[in-house]
Write a structure and sequence with these properties.
The longest helix has about 35 residues. The chain is built from 6 helices and 2 strands. It has a two-stranded antiparallel ribbon. By secondary structure, it is mainly alpha-helical. The protein starts with a helix and ends in a 13-residue tail after the last helix.
Length: about 130
Amino acid sequence: MRIGELAQRTGVATRLLRYYEEQGLLASTRSTNGYREYAEADVETVFRIRGLVTAGMTTRLIRMLFDMEGVRGTETAADCTRTVAQEVADELAGVEDRIRCLSRSRDTMRAWLATSGYPERAPAAASP
């Protein structure tokens, strides 16, 4: 599929798809006329990239994680350098900090709605 179709199917702008390609997160082949061509599996790859970026990961760290994919079991520990492991641990700590902050904000909003005279607007508590 061409870049426009990938953009339409994923909701990601073509400019951003080209950026992902520049960062080594996405690969395309070139047709004889020079157009980028993507595989069907790239739709899921773009969704994964967006999810990780939304969670706060940098494209550099996503690239490291993608590069390590396919390595399983004890090989993972052998191929995962201390630097990469530390970056993943730091990123995870940041994600957990953001989750705690969002949870506090959610609880504050719920409490305010419950005491503001509009409890019917307070959404039901979601399970964690």
